[in-house]
Amino acid sequence: MALNFLSPTEINSLSFLDTSKSRYNLNLLKNEGVFALKMKDANTVAKRVHCSAQQPPPPAWPGRAVAEPGRKSWDGPKPISIVGSTGSIGTQTLDIVAENPDKFKVVALAAGSNVILLADQIKRFHPQLVAVRNESLVDELKEALADMEDKPEIIPGEQGTIEVARHPDAITVVTGIVGCAGLKPTVAAIEAGKDIALANKETLIAGGPFVLPLAHKHKVKILPADSEHSAIFQCIQGLPEGALRRIILTASGGAFRDWPVDKLKEVKVADALKHPNWNMGKKITVDSATLFNKGLEVIEAHYLFGAEYDDIEIVIHPQSIIHSMIETQDSSVLAQLGWPDMRLPILYTLSWPDRISCSEITWPRLDLCKLGSLTFKAPDNVKYPSMDLAYAAGRAGGTMTGVLSAANEKAVELFIDEKISYLDIFKFVELTCDKHRSELVSLPSLEEIIHYDLWARDYATSLQLSAGLSPVLV
């Protein structure tokens, strides 16, 4: 499938949210306390759109996944680096390493500021190199490792994280760091020829136009570590070229899947953090409640698999057993099923194209009879306006997708800090994306991607909603 971006002329002639270009129709409430996203005048023209005659970036997996002829399994423990070792992805990756010491070994770890946990990881897994992003905590880490005989090399700051990502002995790099902070390390790993176990969404959502050509240049595999894209990746194994027809992303529906829409104006932070199926960090749990996580996954699927936005759909699946599906050209639908457990997709990114036998004690097998039934329903666009925002950003392409992600991250942060309401999240993101239309860069450099990520966070921070929910600048 060919990538399908709007042309610069189309971008100029549309408001950011235009229902004629969205898979879903906007039908947002105008009830008391609930804002309505409004289309601008159809003749609105952006001031400036940077364009290029170059072709859009190639997908990581053009509708299929093929291991090169002669690709061999790794002899002995496979060396890996982990960027973001103290986060959810990092700790679960280390659980996998601990259970499979004959299959994997850790050569480098990078963390942010949790030096107590990092010190424990170092003592247990004995990496050669360690990075601490917060440079002020290096002495504290050294003190925690004082009684250790074979101490690792410690490199502070962003440069340390980059060195971990491109460690010469690593075969695969797990990118578990959150936000655009993961972009430079991932680029460094790709340039060093490392396969990427991708758990950092911004790598493709913000950096896709830059990262994908780079990965193709260096013949690097980008292997998705989140459950939905791993499911799609597993389903396309063995498909012939051109066989993929449609991607179906499943969503739990988050904390508010059973709430009536008119109750959303009453949402508190504690409500949004009650995910019915998964135990995750605060940010991703709120994203699941707003369904921004699924909108971002639509964009990521576009870059990973080369599917056009019209061929990527979202369906609510409350049980979270089917992690996603694909439809082939002959209308067959293939699905990947499993208990909600992030370790499985992480494991597959590390072992691909092989499969590793797992203990039934720590990896319970799926019992369909015990499960009983699986249900599905269409997502509610009134409840989840994030979908229209994400599809609009995806179709605009270029730097717009990174701006969407960064604005959402900042808005969620403000919501968790109780500085804005739950419904304000959607409005902050829409306003930031709409403002960016005049500066959109179709094929950005890495520096432009990072610049607009920072710009979006600053702009979203500057927004304030008055009592009447009318946006003003502070």
UniProtKB/TrEMBL annotation:
Its cofactor is Mn(2+); Mg(2+). The keyword Chloroplast applies. Residues 80-208 form the 1-deoxy-D-xylulose 5-phosphate reductoisomerase N-terminal domain. GO terms for biological process: isopentenyl diphosphate biosynthetic process, methylerythritol 4-phosphate pathway involved in terpenoid biosynthetic process. Its EC number is 1.1.1.267. It catalyses: 2-C-methyl-D-erythritol 4-phosphate + NADP(+) = 1-deoxy-D-xylulose 5-phosphate + NADPH + H(+). Residues 222-305 form the 1-deoxy-D-xylulose 5-phosphate reductoisomerase C-terminal domain. It is an enzyme of class 1 (oxidoreductase). One of its GO terms (cellular component) is chloroplast. Residues 337-458 form the DXP reductoisomerase C-terminal domain. Pathway: Isoprenoid biosynthesis; isopentenyl diphosphate biosynthesis via DXP pathway; isopentenyl diphosphate from 1-deoxy-D-xylulose 5-phosphate: step 1/6. It comes from the Eukaryota. It is found in: Plastid, Chloroplast. Keywords: Chloroplast, Isoprene biosynthesis, Manganese, Metal-binding, NADP, Oxidoreductase, Plastid, Transit peptide. One of its GO terms (molecular function) is NADPH binding. Pfam families: DXP_redisom_C, DXP_reductoisom, DXPR_C. Belongs to the DXR family. This is 1-deoxy-D-xylulose-5-phosphate reductoisomerase. It comes from Olea europaea subsp. europaea.
